[in-house]
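During the reporting period the student researcher (J.K.) took over the structure-prediction task from the postdoctoral fellow and processed the backlog of single-chain submissions. One of the processed entries is reproduced below for the supervisory committee.
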Amino acid sequence: MAEAECFLEEWARNVAPGLGPRVEVVLAKLDEFRIELKGIEVTAGARRQGIGTRVMNQITELADRTGAAVILFLEPSAAVRLEPFYQRFGFVSMDGGNSMEYEPQSPPQAPGRPSAQ
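J.K. obtained the following structure tokens:
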């Protein structure tokens, strides 16, 4: 099974059920090696309690375990505010700051895996 499929399967089985009603995370498969983080929504009353940080830690830990890269696209109006948050978890800017990517820190051996370029 490709990295992206492993990531999504493990997310659905082991992570998403434990998130609870205060947070919604939308993920999608870009290709066999990459996941797109489409959004994280924390309910208004639950913000500033570290929920987003815990979710991002879960996403990057799962990316490291499965070898899947995680891509996110930022709205230009939100990029200045959100980029430092994502950088804390190892995401780097691409394409002039409109997108960011997290490369797994310990990917499994996968012959033919394309680089992040």
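The committee noted the following: The chain has a mean pLDDT of 85.
J.K. will present the remaining backlog at the next meeting.
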